[in-house]
Structure to design on (444 residues):
């Protein structure tokens, strides 16, 4: 039987969780967004991942909160993807890509042209990354956007660091090819 | 070295993961071989683009709803625990009573002798560290300039606070703050290390300071205490132990 947590202690635990783990909400969403391919499911994944993390927090000893929460986000995403694949009305990848490219729809009325260009090129770059097969996409996201080391990535993915390196190399050359095919070298 | 071997190392080099021993040969080759040089520049360009433009913006309201979810989860948990305590079977109640008894004895023993562990202080320090990051109250004086931070403490605390900026060693000074700790105002210096924050509390060595253990882990944070120069230094962070040790050693040995 677990001893009853006083309200104070529970509040303190929540505060500690918020300070150590919730600060990585942005990173968590970014990974979920790339893995799930759309905003709504990515939001659900983030909610579920943080809830799981919170429930496991009193057993948490790892000092690397970022790597910890990203590993949970990845697990939750993969389960969701599996459910989606098994589901009756599976959405195809391409369809999602199209619904995805609505970035900038909330652009303020007067936007400097340069900024608009930049937003379009960012959206274009994200689309290119989204088209990588998932095993290359995730190493690119973890390395470039979350700035994790090969070792941290290897731990999250449970693969050797050599594999992390070769996937990164292939992912990068794939991205450059995709950009060239699209005539979108400007995005890079 | 052949271009083929160089190409195989370019990604690791770009990521700062190539053995230090192998880097000079690669750099020398890339400086003279036009093709490999172009390949490295192209990879750098790609990396730069992804890093500056690849992030998905956080949707509005996600953080707020996340906070909401967690708060209601915490409340539900508390209520469930409260109910369990009220409605628990006899065995539960007996276990509870036994645990209560044990706790009572422990507290009694703790109170009977001086509080050697300084537990209250440890909790307070962790709470201050957490608070400083939560409430946007990281620093009262935001500056990496020790000539600005050190005088700021004068008149706010009644002792001289040694202030150093360890930016060159990877621990940039972010600023200073006054906190109430152990019955007095104490100086808190704030440092960054990658994404982590370190609070370094400094106050004159006293009886109570001697009660803090050299290293303590509390709720995912690590505390390291050292007495030096007639002062008590207490560093707290979510950094791993070696890094925090390293930081405090650098700080105490600064200029010696
Ligand atoms: Zn070459």
């Amino acid at each position: 039987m677990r001893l009853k947590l006083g309200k104070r202690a529970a509040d303190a635990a929540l505060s500690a969780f918020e300070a150590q783990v919730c600060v990585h909400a942005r990173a968590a969403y970014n990974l979920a967004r790339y893995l799930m391919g759309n905003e709504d499911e990515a939001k659900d994944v983030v909610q579920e991942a943080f809830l799981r993390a919170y429930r496991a927090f009193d057993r948490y000893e790892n000092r690397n909160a970022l790597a910890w929460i990203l590993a949970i986000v990845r697990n939750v995403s993969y389960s969701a993807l599996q459910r989606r694949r098994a589901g009756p009305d599976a959405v195809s990848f391409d369809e999602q890509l199209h619904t995805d490219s609505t970035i900038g729809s909330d652009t303020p009325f007067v936007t400097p042209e340069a900024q608009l260009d930049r937003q379009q090129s960012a959206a274009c770059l994200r689309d290119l990354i989204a088209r990588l097969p998932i095993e290359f996409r995730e190493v690119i996201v973890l390395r470039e956007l979350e700035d994790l080391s090969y070792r941290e990535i290897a731990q999250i993915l449970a693969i050797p660091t050599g594999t992390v390196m070769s996937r990164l190399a292939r992912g990068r050359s794939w991205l450059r090819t995709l950009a060239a095919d699209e005539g979108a070298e400007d995005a890079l | 070295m052949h271009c083929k071997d160089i190409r195989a190392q370019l990604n690791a080099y770009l990521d700062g993961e190539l053995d230090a021993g192998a880097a000079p040969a690669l750099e020398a080759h890339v400086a003279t071989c036009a093709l490999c040089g172009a390949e490295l520049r192209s990879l750098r360009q790609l990396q730069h683009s992804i890093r500056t433009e690849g992030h998905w913006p956080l949707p509005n309201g996600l953080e707020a709803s996340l906070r909401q979810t967690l708060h209601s989860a915490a409340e539900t948990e508390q209520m469930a625990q409260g109910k369990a305590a009220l409605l628990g079977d006899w065995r539960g109640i007996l276990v509870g009573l036994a645990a209560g008894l044990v706790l009572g004895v422990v507290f009694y023993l703790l109170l009977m002798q001086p509080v050697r562990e300084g537990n209250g202080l440890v909790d307070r320090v962790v709470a201050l560290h957490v608070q400083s990051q939560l409430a946007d109250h990281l620093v009262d004086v935001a500056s990496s300039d020790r000539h600005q931070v050190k005088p700021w403490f004068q008149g706010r605390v009644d002792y001289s606070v040694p202030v150093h900026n360890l930016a060159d060693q990877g621990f940039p000074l972010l600023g200073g703050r006054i906190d109430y700790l152990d019955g007095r105002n104490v100086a808190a210096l704030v440092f960054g290390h990658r994404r982590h924050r370190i609070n370094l509390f400094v106050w004159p060595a006293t009886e109570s300071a001697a009660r803090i253990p050299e290293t303590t882990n509390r709720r995912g944070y690590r505390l390291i205490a050292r007495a030096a120069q007639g002062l008590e230094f207490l560093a707290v962070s979510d950094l791993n132990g070696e890094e925090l040790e390293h930081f405090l050693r650098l700080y105490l040995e600064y200029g010696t």
Remarks:
- Chain B is about 50% helix and 20% strand.
- Residues 179 and 186 of chain B are 5 Å apart (CA to CA).
- Residues B 3, 6, 29, 33, 35-36 surround zinc ion (CB under 6 Å).
- Residues 112-117 of chain B have pLDDT under 50 and may be disordered.
